[in-house]
Amino acid sequence: MGEGWQAEEQNDRRTRRWWVRRFAPPHNGNVGGENMRAQFRTTFPDVVRFIWIHLTRSTGLLLFIGAMALFLTWNACHSTIMQHGRIVGTIAWLMAAAIIFAGILLFAFLASVLTALSRRNKTFMTDNTIELQEDRFLTENRYGKGEYKWDIVQKIVRTRGRIVLYVTQSTGIVVPRRAFTNAAEWDAFCNFVETHRKK
Q: What is the β-pairing status of strands 136-141 and 144-149?
């Protein structure tokens, strides 16, 4: 997994450096002072990982899929399973439900990925800028600009390689770690986001 992240960072390094040299203001990692800005290009792994993060961390969706899997397996084979005894039958039922659960989740994941690959998704492989300010944050790409108050952020999900700012229940702004030159800048950016989200 570390090798994949390093390859992804290396592939995007030239683009990121060009954007930083041309557009980025000086950055001293001051969380409480100057605005923070990051430039990056949205890549296919960014989209895939956001979809996976969203699916696996959506409690309501996971509960719905789990309930559906339990219902389908019980209706399909409860009489056959319970012939082997209550304990063995229950274990077999839960195992069958787990398989159905994984299948439904995988189908939802693949369907979302294929939708993201559609030609209508013009933001794919687009250069993006996000700037953090004390009372808001700004986003920009070749198709438009966005301005958001911090209150709109419903939740923040931070992983080893990305931070996601959810502006709706199912829509998030993904900022990859590779947009920063070092760990200190990455941590400062994430701390800024987390601090201002709580205000």
A: antiparallel
Lookup result for tokens 């409690």: 59
CA–CA distance, 15 with 22 (Å, rounded to integer)? 11
Place of tokens 């438009």: 144
CA 179 – CA 49 distance, rounded (Å): 16
Q: Do 147 and 132 meet the contact criterion of CB atoms below 8 Å apart?
A: no
Amino acid letter, 163: I
Among 139, 156, 147, CA closest to 194 = 156
Residue that has been written with the tokens 């070749």 in this structure: 142
Residue 62, pLDDT > 70, answer: yes
Judging by beta carbons within 10 Å of its beta carbon (0-12, 13-18, 19+), is residue 172 exposed, middle or buried? Answer: buried
3-class DSSP state for residue 175?
strand
Query: Mean pLDDT, to the nearest integer, of 133-155?
Result: 91
- pLDDT digits 0-9 by tens, 24-45: 433 333 334 467 889 998 888 8
